[in-house]
Each structure stands twice: as C-alpha cells, then as structure tokens.
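Observation: inputs received (chain + zinc ion).
Thought: call the complex predictor directly.
Action: predict_structure
Action Input:
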Amino acid sequence: MEPCLWTRRRWLTQTLASGLAVTTLPLHAWDRPARRSFHVCLSPSIVEGEPQLLEVVRDAGASVVWLAGFFYGHRPFSDELLQRARSRVERAGLEAHLVNVPLGHPGDSLGSTDGGFPLTPPRHWQIARKPDGSSFAGTSLHEPASQENAAALRQFRKLSFRRCFLDDDFRLARGPGEIGGCFCDDHRQRFLRAAGLPAGSWSELLDDVQARRLTPLLRSWLDYQCDALTASFRLQRRAFGGALGVMVMYLGAEKAGIRLADYRRVPFRVGELMFDDRSFRPVKGKTDELFSVLFHRRFVSPDKAYSETTAYPANALSAANMAAKLVISTIADVRHTMFMSGLTPFPREHWAVLGPAMRAQARLHDELAGHKPRGPLKHFWGEAQRYVGDDRPFSLWLAMGVPFEVVASLPNQGCVFLSDFDAREMAARGPRTRANLFCRPSAQARPAGAVAVGETLSELFALKRSLGRSLGAVPHVVEDEPAVCAWYPTARRVLVWNLCEHPRTLTVTLQNRQQSVGLGPLEATTVKIGPGGL
Ligand SMILES: [Zn+2]
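Observation:
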C-alpha cells in the first residue's frame, strides 16, 4: 500500500476537493509567482537603423528583443548584421534572441515595406496543393525545408544564439478552420503507403475533408501530418541545441498538423487573431481572443507561455487596444508578453501608453500568478473542433460577468457552451453528462437535452438571470454589462474586466455582500474575497 505522505501538494489537492479552499488556503498557495515579462520582436535592420527604439522599449519595461533570423529558405540579414544588432540590443541592457519564419505564410503577412524582401520560399522549395488541386506557397512541408531550417539554426548556434521561436507559419494549413496537409501527388502516395491503404481511399479522404467528417481515415491523415511536423520540429531543435519554441496560430491544433501535446515542454506562444482595431473592437473579438488563449494554456505551463500580441499592419491596432490585450494574458496566466508587428515596428507613440499598462498588468498578474480561474461556466473545446471544426468558437458567454473554468473533457456539472462541431459530434455519439449543455442555433445538430442560445449579449444576459440563486455562492457581476469575471478562489481574488469602451461602475456580489468597482474603458482590476474585501 502506498504510504500516506501528506505532501504539501497532496494536502492542497485534498483541501480543494473538500471545498474548503476559500477559507483555509494562504495567499499564493503554491509556486511563487514569477514576474510578468515583456518582449519585442524586431528586424535586425530596424535595430541598426533606429537604435533609439531600443531605449524606448526598454524604458517602457521590455527586457528582451527577438531578432528575425531565417525566412523560409532565405537569410535576408547577414551574420554580421545579426551580430551587430545583438550587440546593440545587449548594450541597451536587453537580452537578444531569435525568431525564425520557417515555412512561409500564405500572402504578405510580414508587412514588408521593402519591395526587395522575399515573400515566398525560393524556387527549389515545392509549392503545396489544396484538395481541389490548386496550389499555394508556404505552410507545407517538403524537403529541403526542414534541412535548410536546421542548417540555419546550426549557424545561429555558432553565433551563440541560445533561444529561438518558430513563427506561426510552422503549420500545415493556410489558416484557422482549414483541414490541412498538402494534397500533392507525392504526399498522397506517401500517406497511402504509410497507412497501408488502397488508392481508392484517397477520394474517400477528400470527401471526409469536404464534409469535415471525423472518420478514422481523416484522423489517420491528420496524425500523419502531425507526425511530420513534430519530426521537423525535433530535427530543428537538435540542430539548434538551445531552447526552441513554437508559436501556434489562433486556435491552432491537429487539423493544422499541430499535435498540441507534443509541444507541452517547450516555449509556446498562444494563438491570437485580433491584430487590428476592426477585429478586436467588438466584444466578440475580445472573447474569441481570450477563448483561444485559454484553450492553448491547457497545453503549456504559465512560465513557458508567451503571448502573440501582434498588430498587423503595424499601425492598425491602437495603443489602447494593445494595452487591453495585456489583460487577456493576465487572466490566462500567460507570463510573457511578446509584442510583434511584422518587419515594421508599431508607432513609437504607442509605448507611452503601453509602459504604464505593462506595469499595471504586472501588478495584477502578481496577485493571480499560479492560480486557476474557477466557476460554473465551462470553457470546452473538444476533439471535433480540433480535428474538423471551423474555428468559430462559441465565446461570447465569457462576457456574462460570471466565473468560468477551463475543462479538458466534458464535465458532469455546470454550464457547458458547445461550439458547432463539438455539438454535432456529441449529437451523433450521445452526451454522457449531467451538465447543462448550450449550443448556438447555427449548430447543425444538437445533443439531446441541449438548449439553443443565440450568441448575443441579450440572450446570454437572459440566461444569466435564469441561473438565479445557483450563482449565490459564486462572485459575479450584477449588471447586464459585458464584463469578464474571473474568480481565483485560491488567491481570494476576482478579476473584473470592463469590455466596454466607456467607463463603467460594476457591482460584484457574493452571497449577500456587494462591492462597487469603477473601471475605465477596457480596464481590469481585482476585488478581494474574504477579510477586508467582498
Ligand atoms: Zn506536398
């Protein structure tokens, strides 16, 4: 029999399970919080051409600059330029590391203002095929792509670089929602041979892709893609010998060849998408972004988690919205913020806004680091969404002002919001849960017992009111105003994020107690639970 060793961790587990956590746990119960850090990606030529920028980002609170190195078969910046840029970064009191763009993005997502900059891989790299036979460049894996990436990384190691991120073009689908893999003749033959399938299986596979059916055949196609991408990553990491990280696109997962479990132990940039004001401004833009970050944090520990925090084009996201994005990392306990904007830096005036916002988020983050949000609403993103879904999450419920938690499998209690492809899959298999299931009217099929709720604030606030007394023991926002309410019982804190672009006074309630919270536009703050607080 196992000896009864009451380790601290086990004590915590037992205490949490017994429901005593709120009253008995000390503040900062386990891992001491590591401080939030801030990083900036810059091209070596910008570092050389605008060296004052380094002082601006350092004075704002950044501590690391990531220099662009290898671009899908091209080395636009010489070893000498890279080394000079690194020296400048280090002389400014910052660390210097690398970002590679390994396979090439479809289209010009770098925002190159220099007409001479190569936007696609060189001619000796093969182009990829879509299921309909049309072609595209980038985001596919044919040799010599892995070998050339590995050779570049070996060279960077000789130059004494020890940390590198692969950009989010390290994927095998052109964008979110696409079922990927390259459908060229070569890949077709190699897949069929490896899987021991007859030639006739190919048209069956194309049908499954078209209909987004999660069949064993489609699963084995995506497993094959994931094996190839992971093997390429491992080859590159061996060549580099240092810390190689991966940046994952918005909701990136197995359908893009990214087997998330394979990247658990490496630096991991969580996927975001709202790179301009038009996409980030709607409340749904903010909840979609938060949804993707919460999903990816299932696979990476806080200390290895980096944000995407991208503006594209570089001037398309206001400083205020960029500052608001910092709150998403605080809520999800993503410890490192990594600003990026292609080859062009975002406007220098942004830093006057970002500096104070970075310090404010670092303070809030210190209160919450190491603690997990808990609550009756469940964030669920299942296998069907990961393998065959459209990457349109049901996310607006995060704005209900009611606490939530992230679940890796279907829970047996609480309110679970199913995105459309998880709903379809569950309808086919039959749900085995006592949880309350909610689907959007757009779901083609709903599991038995699931309730249709439109993804609108008015319908979701009506749902919140219907929860009534069941919210009594849970801190939540009283008003029908879009706000995220994240509850960290072990930190005895609630974080409230005002999702309006106007100041709001919100009321947080717990049992019979209430506290008013005045918040500026898109501002977040914490409320204490227990003695001296709510
Ligand atoms: Zn191919």
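Thought: report the result.
Final Answer: Residues 128, 140, 142, 182, 184, 186-187 surround zinc ion (CB under 6 Å). Residues 97 and 161 are 6 Å apart (CA to CA).
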